[in-house]
Specification:
The complex is a heterodimer of chains A (355) and B (282).
Chain A: E1 3-12, E2 15-25, E3 30-34, H1 41-49, E4 56-61, E5 64-65, E6 76-79, H2 91-100, H3 110-123, H4 139-152, E7 157-161, H5 169-185, E8 189-194, H6 197-203, E9 206-211, E10 214-219, H7 221-226, H8 231-236, E11 241-248, E12 251-254, E13 257-260, E14 268-276, E15 281-284, E16 292-302, E17 305-312, E18 318-324, H9 325-331, E19 338-343, E20 347-348, H10 351-354
Parallel strand pairs in A: 3-8, 3-9, 6-7, 7-8
Antiparallel strand pairs in A: 1-2, 1-4, 4-5, 9-10, 11-12, 11-14, 12-13, 14-20, 15-19, 16-17, 16-19, 17-18
Chain B: H1 2-9, H2 18-44, H3 49-56, H4 59-92, H5 98-105, H6 107-110, H7 113-124, H8 142-167, H9 170-178, H10 183-212, H11 215-221, H12 231-240, H13 244-279
Helix pairs in contact in B: 2-13, 4-8, 4-10, 7-8, 7-11, 8-10, 8-11, 9-10, 10-13, 12-13
The chains are: A alpha+beta (355), B mainly alpha (282).
Chain lengths: 355, 282
């Protein structure tokens, strides 16, 4: 089922939680709502689910307006961050719940329910734990029960509120792979909320990046990572180095160094910021023209990548550089050494400064 | 072999202070509860078995047991129903005067029972504020006894249920709704089962309290032998006639009944818990 949101607004008292949210989700897509806490992503998900009301705007499921429908009538599956399992029911009873509460006319027979539960238990690989109670399961197992329970009612839309937020790093990674595979096998339109960039980039077909109740950018993981639409998105998706300076005739003047920026020849700004990812910085031990001089203050080798923390000599600002392990070994950089830095590419957001 | 014996000798870890605190607890309970009870037992043993049986199976005593247990049971059940409702209202809704209402619930705890008894009997007497609207007598009948016992038992259910309802997560209700359950189904299938242990505890406390209640009942009961005479009053009457042995014999019956009741309620709670644990072993 496709989902269409247009001009959704929501206030909590004086707090403007959602501002003019419009979003189209195609049938069968897996969408991530990504943003820092307080960005309105969970409120938006709850509004789509019908667990929260909105002030104005429209929500269409397949061209049907669902605003007047309650959560019970929207035919959605909702997965909560803290599982929200029914602790007095066994795993099997939890999964069967959505089918058992149907009116007699729509309720499958006892045997059909049992078959459905068995099938779902197999899907989430918990068949051996059917008679356990939720309190006897680990966090990852509980979340899989919650997923099976949501899937039991065969929802047209699956909504997940930080589904892996309460789990530890390893389980989290396993579960999100599993969710990705599940979605490949059963392409239910799904929206999940997360504040973890890596998770969103890893799992989602498209990412909706939110900040302070607004949508900052919508795009595929590659699009949002490589072509961030705003400084916020650039900052939020991964680490970044800032070069504050004056942009004039396609050259950014920053401290002791200047950099040619192709494509910005027409723009002239007195104060702007250039953004560069840590892996887009060139590092050298020989002095070459138009480079930044910096001191190496920290070296963290993490797997295949070495993270360097540098201190600029001219502005005393902090820089982050990431280089491959092999390259690092060839350079033979040590702590306290002076190195020369040059951005391989840089992004300047002009629109923000036009006003 | 030697190795295993070494391991067996190792003591399991306990929080420090175990022997002292346990010792003190046993001493305290013995002094406060077991000593008076053994006194009771000792008094009863002065009777021969047939004498004892004669006293406790006296028709007047039997009708007092029936009245006491029956009215306490009905009062406790009424408290379960309305106490649950009040706890729900106090936890789930915000309204002006909520904290006052919350405080009033405790009044039956604090009020001297005699005051409660006198007040209730004057209200429910045939010319009282409420009693005048009814064709039948309320005060000085078993109905009056039940009203008094309901009055003193109310806080037990409300106060045991309140924290459980407060800790109930809103998400579980939302999950239930998103799975297609109606509001009634959510309450009946999700919220109520979570509250059952607390409701049982509240019921046990209210019932146990009602069994031993004396002060408030004597004023509203009328105290007619065979009709409105409760067991605690019967004991009191015997004491006033210097029949200490007879009084202890009846008291002993009440004691055994209370003990059996509390013990079986604990067993029920334990069974409910065990059912959960057993599920895991399958």
């Amino acid at each position: 089922m496709s989902i269409q949101l247009s001009k959704v607004e929501k206030h909590f008292g004086n707090y403007h939680a959602l501002r003019d949210i419009s979003l189209a989700v195609e049938a069968g897509e897996l969408i991530a709502l990504l943003g820092p806490s307080g960005s309105g992503k969970t409120s938006l998900l709850r509004i789509i689910a019908g667990l929260e009301s909105l002030d104005s705007g429209e929500i269409l499921f397949d061209d049907t307006n669902v605003l007047t429908l309650s959560a019970k009538q929207r035919n959605i599956g909702f997965v909560f961050q803290h599982y929200a399992l029914f602790n007095h029911m066994t795993v099997a009873e939890n999964i069967a719940y959505g089918l058992k509460v149907r009116t007699r006319k729509n309720r499958p027979s006892k045997q059909q329910i049992e078959e459905k539960v068995a099938e779902l238990l197999q899907l989430v690989k918990l068949d051996h734990l059917a008679t356990r109670y939720p309190t006897q399961l680990s966090g990852g197992q509980r979340q899989r029960v919650a997923l099976a329970r949501a899937l039991a009612v065969e929802p047209k839309v699956l909504l997940l509120d930080e589904p892996f937020g309460a789990l530890d790093a390893k389980v989290r990674k396993d579960l999100r792979r599993w969710l990705r595979n599940l979605h490949n096998d059963f392409p239910i339109t799904s929206i999940f909320v997360t504040h973890d960039q890596e998770e969103a980039l890893d799992v989602a077909d498209r990412i909706v990046i939110m900040n302070e109740g607004k949508i900052e950018q919508i795009g595929t993981p590659t699009e949002v990572y490589e072509h961030p639409a705003s400084p916020f998105v650039y900052n939020f998706l991964g680490n970044v180095n800032l070069f504050k300076g004056r942009l004039h005739q396609g050259t950014l003047q920053n401290g002791d160094f200047s950099l040619q920026l192709p494509g910005y020849e027409e723009v002239q700004i007195e104060e702007t910021v250039g953004y560069t990812r840590p892996h887009d910085l060139l590092i050298s031990k020989q002095k070459i023209p138009d480079t930044v001089t910096a001191l190496v203050t920290h070296i963290h080798p993490i797997g295949a990548v070495v993270h360097l923390e540098l201190n600029r000599i001219d502005t005393n600002e902090f820089l982050e550089v990431e280089i491959p392990q092999e390259y690092f070994r060839n350079l033979e950089i040590t702590k306290g050494e002076t190195v020369y830095i040059k951005p391989k590419q840089m992004k300047v957001f002009v629109e923000d400064y036009v006003i | 072999m030697q190795k295993t014996s070494v391991f067996k000798k190792q003591k399991p870890f306990r929080l420090p202070g175990f022997s002292f605190t346990l010792g003190f607890s046993i001493f305290y309970i013995s002094l406060l509860i077991l000593l008076p009870l053994s006194m009771l037992l000792l008094n009863v043993t002065q009777l021969s078995l047939s004498e004892f049986w004669q006293i406790i199976s006296d028709p007047r005593a039997i009708s007092s047991y029936k009245l006491t247990i029956g009215s306490a049971l009905i009062a406790a059940l009424i408290n379960v129903i309305f106490g649950t409702l009040i706890a729900w209202v106090l936890v789930r809704y915000d309204f002006p005067g909520k904290s006052i209402m919350d405080g009033i619930v405790d009044l039956p705890f604090a009020l001297p029972t005699a005051v409660a008894g006198i007040t209730l009997s004057s209200i429910y007497a045939q010319n009282g504020w409420i009693g005048q609207f009814f064709d039948f007598k309320i005060a000085f009948t078993p109905i009056g006894i039940m009203i008094a016992l309901t009055f003193i038992g109310l806080p037990f259910v409300v106060r045991t249920l309140q924290p459980v309802l407060e800790s109930f997560k809103k998400e579980e209700e939302e999950a239930s709704a998103s799975l297609g359950a109606t509001r009634f189904q959510t309450i009946y299938r999700v919220i109520l089962p979570t509250c059952i242990p607390a409701i049982l505890t509240g019921f046990t406390l209210a019932f146990a309290r009602a069994l031993g209640e004396y002060g408030s009942v004597v004023f509203i009961a009328g105290n007619m032998p065979f009709k409105t005479e409760i067991t605690p009053l019967l004991i009191m009457t015997k004491l006033e006639q210097y029949d200490y042995i007879g009084a202890t014999a009846i008291a002993f019956v009440m004691l055994v009944f209370s003990f059996v009741f509390l013990f079986s309620m604990n067993c029920i709670q334990w069974l409910l818990q065990r059912k959960k644990l057993q599920g895991g072993r399958a």
